[in-house]
């Protein structure tokens, strides 16, 4: 993000119309689409659905972008940690079960019903059986 920010500011501040709201909106379009939508929704929450680009400074814009980016990174890290913890909890639970003499908990079996290979082999067998019946004289 730092490279994007530096490049954008360098290009915009060389222009005479630097404080036009168009350039402040253009700043969001250069970001990734979902990230930009998240930032715009934060602005709309903060300013009651109408974002006053005229009064916003570039510092305000970049501070919200940085803050939102850090929140997003922290959310991703927390989700990864939760997944890791869930795996260790399952392992620990299995160890406790064996210590008390019970079998480990096993997940239910998943049946593959819509496997296209099963259908192919099934219909091939039927096709060849019928073909043999037709070819053999009775």
From TrEMBL:
Pfam families found in the cross-reference section: Caulimovir_coat_dom
Domain of life of the organism encoding this protein: Eukaryota
Protein name in the entry: UBN2_2 domain-containing protein
Phylogenetic lineage: Eukaryota, Viridiplantae, Streptophyta, Embryophyta, Tracheophyta
């Amino acid at each position: 993000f730092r490279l994007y920010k530096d490049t954008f500011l360098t290009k915009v501040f060389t222009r005479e119309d630097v404080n036009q709201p168009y350039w402040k909106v253009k700043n969001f379009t250069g970001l990734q689409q979902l990230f930009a939508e998240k930032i715009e929704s934060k602005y709309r929450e903060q300013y009651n659905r109408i974002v006053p680009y005229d009064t916003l400074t570039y510092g305000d814009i970049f501070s919200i972008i940085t803050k939102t980016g850090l929140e997003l990174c922290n959310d991703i890290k927390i989700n990864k940690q939760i997944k890791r913890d869930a795996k260790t909890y399952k392992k620990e639970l299995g160890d406790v079960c064996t210590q008390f003499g019970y079998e480990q908990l096993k997940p239910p079996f998943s049946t593959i019903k819509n496997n296209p290979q099963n259908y192919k082999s099934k219909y091939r067998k039927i096709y060849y059986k019928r073909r043999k019946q037709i070819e053999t004289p009775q």
